[in-house]
Each structure stands twice: as structure tokens, then as C-alpha cells.
User: What shape does this take?
Amino acid sequence: MRAAILPLLMTAALAGCTETTPEDRTVPTPGGRWTDPRLQAVLEAQDHRRTEDLCALLKDSVAGVREAAALALASVQDSAARPCLLEALRDADATVRGAAGLALGGVADSLALTELLKVAEREPDSVVKAQLFSVGFAAELRLHKHEPDWYISYLESTDRGIRLRAAQTLSRLPREVLAPTAHSVLHAVHVERDPAVRQFLVASLKHHALPAITDTLLRLVQHDSVPAIRIAAARALGAKEDTLLAPVLLDRATTDPDPGVRRAAIEQLQRYHLHLDGEAIWKAAQESADYRVKLPLYGLVMKHAGPETRVICRMLMESMRRQDLGPYLNAALLTAMGPVLPQDTLLAVILGDRPAVERQAALEASMAQFQEKLKTGEIDQAGRDKWLVGQLRQVLTSGDAGLIAAVCERLAEERPEVLRQLLTEAVVAQVRGALHPVRDLETLQLLDQALARRDGNGPPPHAAPPFNHPIDRARLGLLRDGQRYRIVTAKGTIVLAIEPATAPGSCVAFDSLVTAGYYDGKAFHRIVPNFVAQGGCPRGDGFGGMPWTLRTEVGPQGFVEGAVGLASAGRDTESCQFFIMLSPAPHLDGRYTRFARVLSGLEVARRLEVGDVMTRVERVQ
Assistant: This one.
């Protein structure tokens, strides 16, 4: 396949296509596209996943209807639509051809991909031509695995999107596949000028042991002016688990001005299985005034420092436990103290009335403590299994959907004989009876996965929930593309612009939640540097949702920096949690709903840390 696709994509890349994205050309239009009565049939068919109706609408006499139908099929992603989409690639209207290509990319098999690329080669419109080749490249990555040199060859493309996808795919390859590419990837790091592409290339250096690569990573993590590059370099250094590199990571964890770099450096230190300098970590923790740095460093002290230092550190943390640092810092303190807290203390937190994020931290600490005791020989496997069954049965029957989900995630790694003892029919019936069929859908899915493992079966396929949340057409008619919303935080203000033209149901739901005041006071519970800032969970731990779900809506814009999407537990399960892209993530395209983009304040989003609160979210008139 390489011989066929490479020249075509390189030709498109060299055709002089610009970096202008669809959102750059968007002009807000009061009322939006969905006020057009001719599009109501498209909206209805998309919402109800009626592939046959949408294929029929691809033959409508109005180009706007045909384009909307093609975009709707990009959301539906039904392989039965391949024939009608292939036909639509030859539509007289360029926008319809582009939309058909986008939809086909999500369901293409090898034959459809070949046809898509043939059409792209003959496409007369330069913008659509570039779009079709980009879609084709994404489909090629989805359908086929290649040798690393194949991906490296695309780093020479003048199309930023293609370089991004190639570099990100490289960064996700396993160690044994990446190992022979050391010199080529290092060269690409030195010549690449786009920071987003470069961060993925730096991440690809994590499996290489050449001195020149380590020297490059050390220079980047300490001196590069772009925080995203420093984050990628910190992760690549940490993956080597070299104790000689730990002091550099400790320095970045405490002195780097960017919170994302500090968090990434701490996470890498936490990954180390080798012994670290506990006294140096203790000193750094004492000197830091930032509790988000201090508390995880205290946890490292309890793992790596000498007995006297550990006693002092424990006494200090016990005094802190008598304070209320807020739910997220309390959770960080529980994590740091986890190895030394009695099991009955942890269980009291797990089953108590503390905020969900604290109960989750106590559960994780409890399970980690027994796993460590097993490794050190303090208990045997039989003792550990007895505890696991006894304690987790209490958690599973607590009725707390988030705790049940966390337990089921962990059970995916357990031996079937343990699962048979724990997940009896009586326990499973009690768990199911406590869960809402829609709001707790993710928990139910995780339970089903644990049961499949118990019974020796493969993971069950994802089953989207039935249609349960029709779009409020009256509200949709009042929304325009580009309608702005303001998120106020202590770190600053973020302004979003919604995109109802491609995500109508998602935008209506978001607008409804905002105007009801739902997001006021909600926290950003998940921050992944160089990836996302996620918030809006009603529980605050990521396991909460609404008693309704939305349809996944796929558009052409993609998950670039500043895109705003909806979290999900699989197709058609979106509700209230949203995320802001801190870096591009092309692997999310076609899988998640993008419904908005950041107009201003992306630098604020990059400064967010776990627990930062949305004090107010409002529509800007």
C-alpha cells in the first residue's frame, strides 16, 4: 500500500495548500444553518441513526442538504453507507465531495480507501483535494500497520496535519519497533520547526538509549522555551528510569515555571521502581510552597527516604490531615500517606461521606498497600485474595457508582478464580440494582467487562444506549455558529465559541447546562499536560454524568489545539463533561464530538491544575 499512497499524499502536500483551518473561515451567522427547514430531515435522520434516509438525502437537489447529509453520515459511521458515499465523491459541488470524503474516511475499508485516493488525485478544488488526502492518510493509519520508516517518510510533508499524524503515530509505537529509528527521529527533532509536531517527535525518543539522545532531552527539558517540548522531554527522560537523570526531573518538578512541566516531572519520578535519593526529595518538598508539588513529593519521601525522615514526614502529614485542604489536595494527601494509613482508616474514608475524589484516593491507596505487602512477602497470595474479596465486596455493594467503576477497572486484571469468589450472582444483582441504566452507563460497561473475564469470555462489544435525548429544536434555532461562552477561573478567563453547524445536539445541551448554572462551581478534575483539561463532572472524580446521553457528532475541524470536545464512555454516550485540547490529538478525530473552540484564554487552560474551579460559566450576549 505504501507505494500507492505515498506519491499521492506527497503530491497533495506539495500542492501549496495553506494552514488555514475551517474554523478560521467561520463567520458567525445569526440563527445558524439549522433554521433552514430543508435541513430538518437531515437532523432527524442523524439523531436517529437512519443511514438509509441520509443516503437518500445525498441525492437531494439542494447542495446544502447533500453536504449536511454527508456530514451526518460522518457522525453515524455506518459501513452500510460506503456505496452512497463513494458515489457522493463525484458530486458536482466541491463542499459535498469534501464532506463525503470525511464520512467515508470513518468507515473505509481497503477498497474504499483506494477509491478515495483515486478521486483525491483528480479533485480540481485545492482545498477539497488537501482535505481528501488528509482523510485518506488518517484512514490508512487506522487500517494498516507499517514499518517506522514509513511514518518517518511523511515527516517531510509540507502539510502540517500529515506530519502531526505521522509523528504522533511514531510516538505510540512499542519500544522494539522504535529502537532502530533513533538517528532518523533525532534528526527530525532538530529540523522540525512546528512545536506541536516536534513534541510528538521528542516523545518518540523515550525508547532510545543513545548518549546523543539523552543529551538532547536534557537540553530540551531544562532550556527549551516551549513548555510542551519540556513536558515531552521530561516524559522521555522518565521512561528511561535512570537514577542519574532523577535529579534533573526533581529540579523541573520544583522550579519549572509551567505547572504542566512540574506535573509531568513528578509523574515520571513516581514511575521509578529503582531507589531514589529520598533526602534530596525531602529537601525539595520542604522548600516548595506549592501543595500540588509538596504532597506528591512527600509520597516519594515515604517510599525512598531513610527511617528518621519518614517518621518526620509522616508526623507532618498527620498534622495536615487534621486540616481541610479542599477535596483535591485532601485526595493528594491520602495518596501520599496511603502506604502508612491503617486499612480500617482507609475503609472508613471509602465508605464515608467525604467528596468522591477523596473516596477514590482512599480506595486506590488501600489496594496499592495490599499489593505492596504481597510483593514484599508480608502477606501471601491467599491472604491478599481473602482481603480483596472481603473489602471489595463492601465497596461493590456501597451503591456508589464511581467506586464500583474504579473497582471494576481494577478487576479487569484479576484472576478469574478471585472474580468468581467476589462477583457472585447475588452481589452482581445488588450492584446492578443500585445503578442508573443511563447515568451510570460507564460503570455498567466496566462491570460487564469484569464479568466477561470471570466467565472466561472476551471483552463485550460496546453497545450504544438507545436514543433518549431529542434535540430541543427551538433552542437550536436560537444558537448561531460562533456564539461565545465565558469560563471564569482563578487562573483567568477562557472564552469558547460553539459550533452548532456540525454539533447541533451537543451545542444545545451545553447551552442548556450553562444557562441553568450547572457548571458554576464545578472543577477541572483531570489535567493531562500536552493533552487535555477536563471538567464538568457532577461527582468531581470523572465518573459522573447526566440521566441522558447525546449522540456522537463528528465534524471536519478536528482536535487541534484549543478544540473543545465532550468526554464519553464510547459512541453516543456523551453528556456533561467536556475537555479543552492543550495540544493537538489527531487520534481523537472521528471518535469524539468536537462542539466548540477556544477563542481566547488557551494559555489560561494550560495553567489549570487538578481541582481548579469554574467559578462561573456564562453565555456572552
Remarks:
- The first helix runs from residue 2 to 13.
- The two ends are 52 Å apart (CA to CA).
